[in-house]
Amino acid sequence: MILFDKVWFSYGTRQVLKDLSFSIEFKEKVAILGGSGEGKTTILKLIVGLIKPDSGKITIEGEDITNKTEDELRGVRMKFSIVFQEGALFDSLNVKENVAFCLREYTKMSEDETDKRVRELLQIVGVEEAIELMPEELSGGMHRRVSIARSLAACEPKMFLYDEPTSGLDPINADNICKLILELSAPPSPPLSKGGIKGGGRGFIIVTHKVFDAMKVADRFMFLKDGMIIFDGNKGELINTTIPEIQLFMVELNLKPL
Ligand SMILES: Nc1ncnc2c1ncn2[C@@H]1O[C@H](COP(=O)(O)OP(=O)(O)OP(=O)(O)O)[C@@H](O)[C@H]1O
Ligand SMILES: [Mg+2]
Fold this sequence. Notes:
Layout: E1 2-11, E2 14-24, E3 29-34, H1 40-47, E4 55-60, E5 63-64, H2 70-77, E6 80-83, H3 95-106, H4 111-125, H5 140-153, E7 159-163, H6 171-184, E8 203-208, H7 211-217, E9 220-225, E10 228-233, H8 235-239, H9 244-250
Parallel strand pairs: 3-8, 3-9, 6-7, 7-8
Antiparallel strand pairs: 1-2, 1-4, 4-5, 9-10
Helix pairs in contact: 3-4, 3-5, 4-5, 5-6, 6-7
Bound molecules: adenosine-5'-triphosphate and magnesium ion.
Protein backbone atom coordinates (compact mmCIF):
# COMPACT_ATOMS: atom_id res chain seq x y z
CA MET A 1 0.00 0.00 0.00
CA ILE A 2 1.08 3.55 -0.72
CA LEU A 3 0.31 5.97 2.08
CA PHE A 4 0.69 9.75 1.99
CA ASP A 5 0.27 11.26 5.42
CA LYS A 6 -0.07 15.05 5.54
CA VAL A 7 2.46 15.58 2.76
CA TRP A 8 3.60 19.09 1.92
CA PHE A 9 5.88 19.73 -1.03
CA SER A 10 7.27 22.80 -2.73
CA TYR A 11 9.79 23.60 -5.45
CA GLY A 12 11.46 26.64 -3.93
CA THR A 13 8.71 29.15 -3.34
CA ARG A 14 6.18 27.23 -5.49
CA GLN A 15 3.98 25.35 -3.03
CA VAL A 16 2.77 22.33 -5.00
CA LEU A 17 1.19 19.88 -2.53
CA LYS A 18 -0.63 20.99 0.60
CA ASP A 19 -1.30 18.58 3.42
CA LEU A 20 -1.97 15.71 1.05
CA SER A 21 -3.21 12.46 2.62
CA PHE A 22 -4.40 9.35 0.79
CA SER A 23 -3.79 5.64 0.55
CA ILE A 24 -3.72 3.41 -2.53
CA GLU A 25 -3.51 -0.40 -2.53
CA PHE A 26 -1.09 -1.96 -5.04
CA LYS A 27 -3.94 -3.82 -6.72
CA GLU A 28 -6.05 -0.71 -7.33
CA LYS A 29 -6.52 0.93 -10.72
CA VAL A 30 -6.31 4.60 -9.97
CA ALA A 31 -6.35 7.71 -12.13
CA ILE A 32 -4.94 10.93 -10.74
CA LEU A 33 -6.52 13.73 -12.72
CA GLY A 34 -5.88 17.43 -12.70
CA GLY A 35 -4.82 20.38 -14.79
CA SER A 36 -1.32 21.19 -16.00
CA GLY A 37 1.08 22.05 -13.22
CA GLU A 38 -1.19 20.83 -10.41
CA GLY A 39 1.45 18.38 -9.13
CA LYS A 40 0.51 15.04 -10.70
CA THR A 41 4.04 14.16 -11.81
CA THR A 42 5.29 15.41 -8.45
CA ILE A 43 3.16 12.78 -6.69
CA LEU A 44 4.70 9.97 -8.78
CA LYS A 45 8.20 11.28 -8.10
CA LEU A 46 7.45 11.31 -4.37
CA ILE A 47 6.16 7.72 -4.48
CA VAL A 48 9.46 6.43 -5.84
CA GLY A 49 11.54 8.74 -3.67
CA LEU A 50 13.03 10.87 -6.47
CA ILE A 51 12.07 13.89 -4.37
CA LYS A 52 11.30 14.20 -0.68
CA PRO A 53 8.40 15.95 1.04
CA ASP A 54 9.04 19.15 2.99
CA SER A 55 6.97 17.62 5.77
CA GLY A 56 4.65 14.69 6.27
CA LYS A 57 5.32 11.02 5.71
CA ILE A 58 5.18 8.61 2.76
CA THR A 59 5.11 4.88 3.46
CA ILE A 60 5.27 2.06 0.94
CA GLU A 61 4.12 -1.30 2.29
CA GLY A 62 4.52 0.06 5.78
CA GLU A 63 8.10 1.26 5.15
CA ASP A 64 8.66 4.94 5.74
CA ILE A 65 10.60 6.12 2.67
CA THR A 66 10.84 9.75 3.70
CA ASN A 67 14.37 9.54 5.05
CA LYS A 68 15.79 6.68 3.06
CA THR A 69 19.16 6.91 1.32
CA GLU A 70 19.49 6.40 -2.45
CA ASP A 71 20.76 2.87 -1.79
CA GLU A 72 17.80 1.98 0.41
CA LEU A 73 15.42 3.45 -2.16
CA ARG A 74 16.51 0.97 -4.84
CA GLY A 75 14.39 -1.70 -3.16
CA VAL A 76 11.38 0.62 -3.11
CA ARG A 77 11.81 1.56 -6.78
CA MET A 78 11.93 -2.10 -7.80
CA LYS A 79 8.32 -2.43 -6.62
CA PHE A 80 7.21 -0.05 -9.36
CA SER A 81 7.39 0.05 -13.09
CA ILE A 82 7.33 3.71 -13.95
CA VAL A 83 6.74 5.19 -17.40
CA PHE A 84 7.66 8.83 -17.29
CA GLN A 85 5.86 11.63 -19.09
CA GLU A 86 6.75 11.57 -22.82
CA GLY A 87 8.49 8.24 -22.11
CA ALA A 88 11.86 9.65 -23.06
CA LEU A 89 14.10 7.14 -24.82
CA PHE A 90 17.82 7.63 -25.41
CA ASP A 91 18.02 9.22 -28.88
CA SER A 92 21.39 7.73 -29.75
CA LEU A 93 20.40 4.13 -28.93
CA ASN A 94 18.19 1.90 -31.03
CA VAL A 95 15.08 0.24 -29.59
CA LYS A 96 16.94 -2.90 -28.58
CA GLU A 97 19.65 -0.95 -26.75
CA ASN A 98 17.07 1.29 -25.08
CA VAL A 99 15.21 -1.70 -23.63
CA ALA A 100 18.44 -3.58 -22.87
CA PHE A 101 19.83 -0.57 -21.00
CA CYS A 102 18.05 -1.37 -17.75
CA LEU A 103 18.81 -5.07 -18.05
CA ARG A 104 22.50 -4.22 -18.39
CA GLU A 105 22.28 -1.75 -15.54
CA TYR A 106 20.42 -3.92 -13.04
CA THR A 107 21.06 -7.55 -13.98
CA LYS A 108 23.99 -9.77 -14.90
CA MET A 109 22.34 -11.35 -17.94
CA SER A 110 24.52 -12.69 -20.73
CA GLU A 111 24.24 -11.10 -24.18
CA ASP A 112 22.07 -14.00 -25.38
CA GLU A 113 19.75 -13.76 -22.39
CA THR A 114 19.51 -10.00 -22.80
CA ASP A 115 18.62 -10.35 -26.48
CA LYS A 116 15.95 -12.94 -25.68
CA ARG A 117 14.47 -10.83 -22.88
CA VAL A 118 14.36 -7.69 -25.03
CA ARG A 119 12.49 -9.57 -27.77
CA GLU A 120 10.10 -11.01 -25.20
CA LEU A 121 9.37 -7.55 -23.75
CA LEU A 122 8.87 -6.00 -27.18
CA GLN A 123 6.51 -8.82 -28.05
CA ILE A 124 4.48 -8.19 -24.88
CA VAL A 125 3.94 -4.55 -25.85
CA GLY A 126 3.46 -5.44 -29.52
CA VAL A 127 6.39 -3.74 -31.26
CA GLU A 128 8.85 -6.59 -31.83
CA GLU A 129 9.31 -5.49 -35.43
CA ALA A 130 10.81 -2.17 -34.27
CA ILE A 131 13.79 -3.77 -32.54
CA GLU A 132 16.44 -2.29 -34.84
CA LEU A 133 14.83 1.14 -35.28
CA MET A 134 16.09 4.39 -33.78
CA PRO A 135 13.69 6.41 -31.55
CA GLU A 136 13.30 9.10 -34.26
CA GLU A 137 11.94 6.46 -36.62
CA LEU A 138 9.12 5.45 -34.27
CA SER A 139 5.57 6.77 -34.32
CA GLY A 140 4.24 8.27 -31.09
CA GLY A 141 2.36 5.09 -30.21
CA MET A 142 5.37 2.87 -30.85
CA HIS A 143 7.57 5.21 -28.85
CA ARG A 144 5.22 4.90 -25.88
CA ARG A 145 5.16 1.09 -26.19
CA VAL A 146 8.94 0.88 -26.25
CA SER A 147 9.03 3.10 -23.14
CA ILE A 148 6.65 0.70 -21.43
CA ALA A 149 8.80 -2.27 -22.47
CA ARG A 150 11.84 -0.52 -21.08
CA SER A 151 10.13 0.18 -17.79
CA LEU A 152 9.18 -3.50 -17.53
CA ALA A 153 12.69 -4.66 -18.30
CA ALA A 154 14.48 -4.79 -15.04
CA CYS A 155 12.01 -5.54 -12.34
CA GLU A 156 9.00 -7.57 -11.37
CA PRO A 157 6.77 -4.65 -10.45
CA LYS A 158 4.01 -4.75 -7.89
CA MET A 159 2.40 -1.72 -9.44
CA PHE A 160 2.65 0.34 -12.63
CA LEU A 161 2.98 4.10 -12.59
CA TYR A 162 2.10 5.84 -15.86
CA ASP A 163 2.65 9.54 -16.36
CA GLU A 164 0.45 10.84 -19.20
CA PRO A 165 0.84 7.63 -21.22
CA THR A 166 -1.56 8.76 -23.94
CA SER A 167 -0.64 12.41 -24.31
CA GLY A 168 0.14 13.47 -27.87
CA LEU A 169 -1.34 10.30 -29.36
CA ASP A 170 -4.24 10.13 -31.80
CA PRO A 171 -7.42 8.54 -30.38
CA ILE A 172 -6.74 5.12 -31.89
CA ASN A 173 -3.20 4.90 -30.57
CA ALA A 174 -4.33 6.29 -27.23
CA ASP A 175 -6.97 3.56 -27.09
CA ASN A 176 -4.36 0.91 -27.89
CA ILE A 177 -2.16 2.14 -25.06
CA CYS A 178 -5.19 2.02 -22.71
CA LYS A 179 -5.77 -1.59 -23.77
CA LEU A 180 -2.12 -2.40 -23.13
CA ILE A 181 -2.35 -0.83 -19.67
CA LEU A 182 -5.36 -3.01 -18.86
CA GLU A 183 -3.72 -6.12 -20.32
CA LEU A 184 -0.56 -5.63 -18.31
CA SER A 185 -2.53 -5.45 -15.09
CA ALA A 186 -5.13 -8.09 -15.97
CA PRO A 187 -5.82 -10.87 -13.48
CA PRO A 188 -3.88 -14.06 -14.08
CA SER A 189 -4.41 -15.59 -17.47
CA PRO A 190 -1.59 -17.72 -18.84
CA PRO A 191 1.48 -15.48 -18.47
CA LEU A 192 3.02 -14.65 -21.82
CA SER A 193 6.49 -14.20 -20.51
CA LYS A 194 8.60 -16.52 -18.44
CA GLY A 195 9.17 -13.67 -16.05
CA GLY A 196 5.42 -13.53 -15.62
CA ILE A 197 5.07 -9.84 -16.32
CA LYS A 198 1.80 -10.15 -18.12
CA GLY A 199 -1.25 -11.06 -16.12
CA GLY A 200 -0.06 -10.41 -12.62
CA GLY A 201 -3.23 -8.73 -11.40
CA ARG A 202 -1.20 -5.67 -10.48
CA GLY A 203 -2.73 -2.27 -10.18
CA PHE A 204 -1.60 1.01 -11.58
CA ILE A 205 -1.70 4.72 -11.09
CA ILE A 206 -2.24 6.63 -14.28
CA VAL A 207 -1.61 10.34 -14.11
CA THR A 208 -3.38 12.22 -16.84
CA HIS A 209 -5.51 15.18 -17.77
CA LYS A 210 -7.33 13.09 -20.35
CA VAL A 211 -10.48 12.01 -18.52
CA PHE A 212 -11.64 10.05 -21.54
CA ASP A 213 -8.61 7.73 -21.37
CA ALA A 214 -8.68 7.55 -17.58
CA MET A 215 -12.32 6.38 -17.67
CA LYS A 216 -11.35 3.49 -19.94
CA VAL A 217 -8.85 2.02 -17.52
CA ALA A 218 -9.36 3.18 -13.94
CA ASP A 219 -11.84 2.24 -11.21
CA ARG A 220 -10.91 5.00 -8.80
CA PHE A 221 -10.45 8.65 -9.66
CA MET A 222 -8.68 11.33 -7.68
CA PHE A 223 -8.74 14.94 -8.77
CA LEU A 224 -5.92 17.26 -7.80
CA LYS A 225 -6.49 20.98 -7.54
CA ASP A 226 -4.48 23.66 -5.74
CA GLY A 227 -2.31 21.05 -4.05
CA MET A 228 -5.25 19.16 -2.61
CA ILE A 229 -7.43 16.23 -3.59
CA ILE A 230 -10.84 17.71 -4.19
CA PHE A 231 -12.42 14.45 -5.35
CA ASP A 232 -11.83 10.75 -4.68
CA GLY A 233 -14.45 8.36 -5.97
CA ASN A 234 -15.57 5.81 -8.55
CA LYS A 235 -16.66 6.31 -12.16
CA GLY A 236 -20.32 6.91 -11.38
CA GLU A 237 -19.46 9.47 -8.75
CA LEU A 238 -17.09 11.18 -11.16
CA ILE A 239 -19.70 11.44 -13.88
CA ASN A 240 -22.27 12.83 -11.46
CA THR A 241 -19.96 15.22 -9.65
CA THR A 242 -21.20 18.73 -9.04
CA ILE A 243 -17.70 20.13 -8.50
CA PRO A 244 -17.40 22.80 -11.24
CA GLU A 245 -13.67 22.29 -11.95
CA ILE A 246 -14.24 18.60 -12.58
CA GLN A 247 -17.35 19.23 -14.65
CA LEU A 248 -15.18 21.31 -16.96
CA PHE A 249 -12.93 18.28 -17.47
CA MET A 250 -15.95 16.11 -18.21
CA VAL A 251 -16.88 18.26 -21.20
CA GLU A 252 -14.37 16.16 -23.11
CA LEU A 253 -16.71 13.20 -22.70
CA ASN A 254 -19.73 15.10 -23.96
CA LEU A 255 -21.40 13.96 -20.79
CA LYS A 256 -21.58 17.39 -19.26
CA PRO A 257 -22.50 20.26 -21.57
CA LEU A 258 -21.07 23.64 -20.61
N1 LIG B 1 12.10 20.78 -11.05
C1 LIG B 1 11.23 21.76 -10.84
N2 LIG B 1 11.63 22.97 -10.37
C2 LIG B 1 10.76 23.96 -10.13
N3 LIG B 1 9.43 23.88 -10.33
C3 LIG B 1 8.97 22.70 -10.80
C4 LIG B 1 9.83 21.59 -11.07
N4 LIG B 1 9.08 20.58 -11.53
C5 LIG B 1 7.81 21.03 -11.53
N5 LIG B 1 7.74 22.30 -11.09
C6 LIG B 1 6.50 23.08 -10.92
O1 LIG B 1 5.71 22.42 -9.96
C7 LIG B 1 4.35 22.40 -10.36
C8 LIG B 1 3.84 20.97 -10.43
O2 LIG B 1 4.54 20.29 -11.44
P1 LIG B 1 4.13 18.86 -11.95
O3 LIG B 1 5.12 18.50 -12.99
O4 LIG B 1 4.00 17.91 -10.82
O5 LIG B 1 2.69 19.14 -12.57
P2 LIG B 1 1.75 18.20 -13.42
O6 LIG B 1 0.43 18.16 -12.74
O7 LIG B 1 2.41 16.90 -13.68
O8 LIG B 1 1.59 19.02 -14.78
P3 LIG B 1 1.44 18.54 -16.32
O9 LIG B 1 0.01 18.11 -16.48
O10 LIG B 1 1.75 19.74 -17.10
O11 LIG B 1 2.41 17.42 -16.52
C9 LIG B 1 4.31 23.16 -11.66
O12 LIG B 1 3.92 24.47 -11.38
C10 LIG B 1 5.70 23.13 -12.19
O13 LIG B 1 5.99 24.28 -12.93
MG1 LIG C 1 3.15 16.01 -15.33
